[in-house]
Design goal:
- By secondary structure, the protein is an all-alpha fold.
- The protein contains 9 helices and 2 strands.
- Strand 1 (209-210) and strand 2 (213-214) form a beta hairpin.
- It comes from Fibrella aquatilis.
């Protein structure tokens, strides 16, 4: 979920990670031939590259296992939801199942990078998340929105780095998850109410200042448009905030 943090912390240990990943990606794509596609090859190549370069580093293994814990959380959440008889509406089964497959792919990426250093899946505490379908969807929305905001919180650390492209490919899929879950709930596909719950997941969404400009004072923005103008911008979540929220489920 939070791969921006992952790449940022890896680069603090080895500043050449971006160049190394780019090199391995080009080399392996050449070997795969014309039938290979970036979407198919990039995650596999990235995992192999990280495994080769960092398998012996305790510091990086710790960072990777932190990210793996978050991915385990989402993966286990959707798997459990799908396995709970009568929970998910029949018309939504296919899309929830597809989201689950995406999260499983993220887990596979990190486990491949860690190799034998990968931590075992923890026991999670989901509380009443599977008591009713509305509660399940509300929890899913919170998880997805938190993940998307966490990516943005670390985006600046990847500027100018080759791994930014791969990270953004994953980030955009997480954003699509958030949007579709919101639409299933009958909401807008983006965050529109800063008072949504849980409060920690949406902290700062009442911000109306972007790049030093108060967006509610822009030309032709009045009345309800002014109140909703902040919807055009997502806020970030810091790493500390993400850890505080995720810790409640461990």
């Amino acid at each position: 979920m939070n791969l921006f943090n992952l790449f940022s912390d890896i680069e603090k240990v080895d500043g050449d990670v971006a160049e190394r990943v780019a090199y391995y990606t080009r080399r392996n794509l050449f070997k795969l031939g014309r039938k290979a596609t970036t979407a198919m090859a990039a995650p596999t190549v990235l995992a192999a590259s990280l495994n080769d370069a960092y398998a012996q580093s305790a510091t990086v293994a710790e960072v990777l296992n932190f990210a793996l814990t978050l991915e385990y959380l989402e993966d286990e959440f959707y798997r459990t939801g799908l396995a709970t008889a009568g929970l998910i509406a029949a018309g939504d089964q296919a899309v929830i199942a597809q989201i689950s497959k995406h999260e499983a792919a993220h887990v596979a990426l990190l486990k491949g990078a860690l190799g034998t250093a990968a931590m075992a899946k923890p026991t999670f505490k989901f509380g009443n998340a599977f008591s009713t379908y509305p509660v399940f969807l509300a929890t899913a929305q919170a998880f997805e929105d938190i993940g998307v905001r966490a990516y943005k919180g670390q985006a600046g650390n990847l500027l100018g780095q080759a791994v930014l492209t791969t990270a953004l490919q994953i980030h955009s899929v997480e954003a699509r998850h958030a949007a579709i879950v919101r639409r299933i709930r009958g909401l807008k596909g983006w965050i529109s109410d800063p008072a949504e719950t849980p409060a920690a997941a949406y902290a700062g969404e009442d911000n109306v200042t972007q790049a030093t400009v108060n967006v509610t004072t822009l030309p032709n923005v009045t009345g309800i448009d002014a109140a909703r103008s902040r919807e055009a911008f997502d806020e970030i979540l810091t790493r500390q905030a993400v850890l505080a929220i995720a810790g409640a489920y461990l």
